[in-house]
C-alpha cells in the first residue's frame, strides 16, 4: 500500500496533544521457538507501530516523537525512527537489508538527552523505560479512535483480500463432502490463496466438521467428514498485514430440515445485523438485536420456549450464542476494537465476549458473525439446565448435542449510506 505515513504520524501528534512528554512506539521483538533451535516464530510488528511506519520487520524498532523537537524543526517534524542494524549474519542467514533510519544503538543517547520527561508508550513495550500510565492509556484510546476510520488504501487491500478469499472458498467447494478430512479442506483452501499470491492467512484457518463446528477455534484435524455433517470454515487471506474475516457453514451432502432451519435462523439474523451497520448505530444494540433474532429463530424451531425479548433479558441466548456479534477488522483480525472515547466498560456478563462498545461511523470495517451452536460443555451444565429449565426443549437439545453449529461471518464496510458487504461473493451454499 502506498500510504503517506508522515500524515498518519502528524495526525497522531495532533491527537495526542503532547507538550513535554516523549512518545515511544515499539515494534516488538521476535521470538525463538521454544525448543533447541535457531529458528524464530514469524515476526509480526505491532500494528500500532506498523500503522505509523509501514515497516513489517524492523525487529525491536522504535519510533520516537519529541514535541519540543517538532517546534525546533529537528528530526522529521519531531519524529525519529530507530531501526535494527543489519549484521552480516542477518544478511547471510535471513537475507535482510538495512532499513532507513538511525540505528537502534543510538536510541539510548537520544533518550538520555531527554531524561526526566514523562513517557507515553504505544505499540510493543520498549524495555527498561518507565511510562506515565494514565497519559499512555489516554493516548492509546485516542490513537485507536484515529485508526478506526479506514483510508481508501486500507479498504482497497481488504477488497483484494476478499477476492483471493472468494477464490479459496470456491476452490474448496468440491471437497465439502463425506470422505475428505478437515485437513484436506484446509489444504485445498489455502493452496488456492497461495497460488494467487497470498503469503499468509489472516489468522489460523478454522475447519470444524460435525461436533467440531461448535468449537470456536477448532483447528483442522485429520477427522474425516461424514455425510450430512456441518462443515464450518472460518478463514481469510492477508495482504500487507490487512485481513478480512469470513466464516461459512456448509453441509456435506443434503441438510436435514432441522439443519436448514438452524442455518436460516443464523442467515436471517446475519442479514438483519448487516443492514443495521449504519452510521450512528450503537454496536451493543446491533449485538442485542441479533441475539433477539437468533432466539426468535430457536423459538420458531421449538428449541426454546417463551417470549424472545424476555429470553434475551434473562441471558438465555448465551446457551446457543455465547459470543459477540463481531469486532473491528482490517489491520489484523482484531483491529481497533474497544471503547468509544469517554465510555467505560459495560460489565454485564452477557457482554463479556463483545469486543467493543462503539458508535459506527463511515469508514469503519467490522465483522458480523452470528452463530447458533450446540455446545455440550454449556448445554450439559446442570446449573444452566436448572436455571433455564422452562426456557429450553431439553429433550430436543439432547438429540442434537453432537450436531455442532452454524456461524456466518462477513466483513462489512460502514458507509455514509447503506453498508457494503466486502465478502459477499464468498459462496453461501445450503
Ligand atoms: Mn471474527
Characterization of this structure:
The chain has 430 residues and is α+β, with helices and mostly antiparallel strands. The protein folds into 2 domains: 5-148, Creatinase/prolidase N-terminal domain (Creatine Amidinohydrolase, Chain A, domain 1), CATH 3.40.350; 152-421, Creatinase/methionine aminopeptidase superfamily (Creatine Amidinohydrolase). Helices cover 35% and strands 14% of the residues. It contains 14 helices and 18 strands. The protein has helices at residues 5-16, 47-53, 67-72, 88-94, 107-112, 133-148, 152-172, 182-195, 257-275, 283-301, 308-313, 376-379, 382-387, 394-399; strands at 22-26, 62-65, 79-83, 102-103, 119-123, 200-201, 206-209, 230-234, 237-239, 242-243, 247-251, 338-339, 356-357, 365-368, 371-373, 405-407, 410-413, 420-421. The chain has a 5-stranded mixed β-sheet. The radius of gyration is 24 Å and the shape is globular. The protein starts with a helix and ends in a 9-residue tail after the last strand. The structure holds manganese (II) ion.
Which key phrases capture this entry?
5-stranded mixed β-sheet, Creatine Amidinohydrolase, Chain A, domain 1, Creatine Amidinohydrolase, 14 helices, binds manganese (II) ion, alpha+beta, 430 residues, single chain
What is the structure about, briefly put?
Helix content is 35%, strand content 14%.
The average pLDDT is: 95
CATH class of the largest domain: Alpha Beta
Q: Which percent bin holds the helix content? A: 25-40%
Q: Which term fits the overall shape?
A: globular
DSSP strand count: 18
Sheet with the most strands? 5 strands, mixed
Amino acid at each position: 500500500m502506498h500510504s503517506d505515513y508522515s500524515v498518519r504520524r502528524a495526525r497522531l501528534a495532533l491527537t495526542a496533544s503532547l507538550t513535554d512528554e516523549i512518545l515511544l512506539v515499539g515494534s516488538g521483538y521476535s521470538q525463538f521457538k521454544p525448543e533447541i533451535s535457531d529458528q524464530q516464530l514469524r515476526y509480526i510488528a505491532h500494528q500500532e507501530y506498523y500503522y505509523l511506519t509501514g515497516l513489517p520487520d524492523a525487529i525491536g524498532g522504535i519510533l520516537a516523537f519529541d514535541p519540543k523537537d517538532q517546534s525546533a524543526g529537528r528530526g522529521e517534524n519531531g519524529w525519529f525512527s530507530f531501526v535494527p542494524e543489519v549484521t552480516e549474519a542477518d544478511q547471510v542467514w535471513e537475507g535482510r537489508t538495512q532499513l532507513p533510519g538511525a540505528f537502534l544503538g543510538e536510541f539510548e543517547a537520544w533518550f538520555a538527552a531527554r531524561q526526566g520527561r514523562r513517557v507515553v508508550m504505544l505499540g510493543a513495550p520498549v524495555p527498561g523505560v518507565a511510562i506515565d500510565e494514565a497519559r499512555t492509556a489516554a493516548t492509546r484510546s485516542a490513537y485507536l479512535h484515529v485508526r478506526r476510520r479506514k483510508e481508501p488504501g486500507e479498504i482497497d487491500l481488504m477488497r483484494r483480500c476478499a477476492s483471493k478469499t472468494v477464490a479459496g472458498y470456491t476452490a474448496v467447494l468440491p471437497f465439502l463432502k463425506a470422505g475428505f478430512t478437515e485437513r484436506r479442506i484446509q489444504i485445498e483452501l489455502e493452496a488456492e490463496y497461495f497460488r494467487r499470491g497470498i503469503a499468509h492467512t489472516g489468522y489460523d484457518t478454522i475447519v470444524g466438521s460435525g461436533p467440531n463446528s461448535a468449537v470456536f477455534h477448532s483447528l483442522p484435524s485429520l477427522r474425516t467428514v461424514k455425510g450430512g455433517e456441518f462443515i464450518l470454515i472460518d478463514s481469510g487471506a492477508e495482504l500487507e498485514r490487512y485481513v478480512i474475516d469470513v466464516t461459512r457453514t456448509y453441509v456435506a451432502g443434503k441438510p436435514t430440515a432441522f439443519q436448514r432451519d438452524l442455518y436460516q435462523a443464523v442467515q436471517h439474523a446475519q442479514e438483519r445485523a448487516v443492514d443495521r451497520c449504519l452510521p450512528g448505530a450503537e454496536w451493543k444494540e446491533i449485538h442485542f438485536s441479533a441475539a433477539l433474532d437468533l432466539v426468535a429463530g430457536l423459538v420458531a424451531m421449538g428449541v426454546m420456549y417463551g417470549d424472545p425479548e424476555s429470553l434475551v433479558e434473562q441471558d438465555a441466548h448465551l446457551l446457543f450464542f455465547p459470543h459477540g456479534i463481531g469486532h473491528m477488522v482490517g489491520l489484523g483480525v482484531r483491529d481497533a476494537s474497544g471503547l468509544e472515547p469517554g465510555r467505560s466498560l459495560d460489565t454485564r456478563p452477557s457482554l463479556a465476549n463483545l469486543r467493543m462498545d462503539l458508535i459506527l461511523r463511515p469508514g469503519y470495517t467490522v465483522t458480523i458473525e452470528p452463530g447458533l451452536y450446540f455446545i455440550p460443555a454449556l448445554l450439559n451444565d446442570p446449573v444452566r439446565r436448572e436455571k433455564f429449565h422452562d426456557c429450553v426443549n431439553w429433550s430436543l437439545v439432547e438429540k442434537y448435542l453432537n450436531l455442532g453449529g452454524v456461524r456466518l461471518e462477513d466483513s462489512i464496510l460502514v458507509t455514509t449510506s447503506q453498508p457494503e458487504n466486502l465478502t459477499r461473493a464468498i459462496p453461501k451454499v445450503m
